[in-house]
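Milestone M4 deliverable, item 7.
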Amino acid sequence: MMPAARESLLDAARTALARRPWPAVRMVDVAAAAGVSRQTLYNEFGNKDGLARALVRREADRYLAGVERALAAHDDAGDRLTAAVEWTVLAARENTLVRALLTGCWNERLPAPGLAAVPSSSPVPAQRRADGALPSPGDFVAAVRDRAVDVLTASGAFLPDTAELTRTCEVVFRLALSCVAAPPADGGIAELVRRALPRQPA
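Output delivered:
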């Protein structure tokens, strides 16, 4: 199958999930919405659990790509980290799967594919990847922390002490997760991030 068709099926599955609980989402309806046969859907994902894993993996990847964009959008270290936190809060507010991935709080409306890898004999490389381990909240902490450390180290603009930088980035991202659960008032995220940053020498 062409990647565009796979994306269309995943888009259809996400649209269906926005309208009804995952247990009520039917494969035949997803296929029809994407304009392909049900057999094509099964060939691509194997079964409904495979579709769920692929959908969750895609939303996780999109969230992390957004973090990358946020970290690259500014020159100032505090602005980079603030943008990453703001993106995290926005993504969790607008996407129930991202919120569940970040918090570990799943409910009966959502797919529940489990985070552990499952045996996969899929001939589709993207599905074999989806059938691998899915990220836990702790995995997101590590991934975003490490990416932020890499970006800020490369910029040369913040904290020459790598251990301190790593600690700061982890604290900031854990702060992001707290903002997902209890969003601060408008403008509050930037202030919280600034308070978490060590003071720099004048």
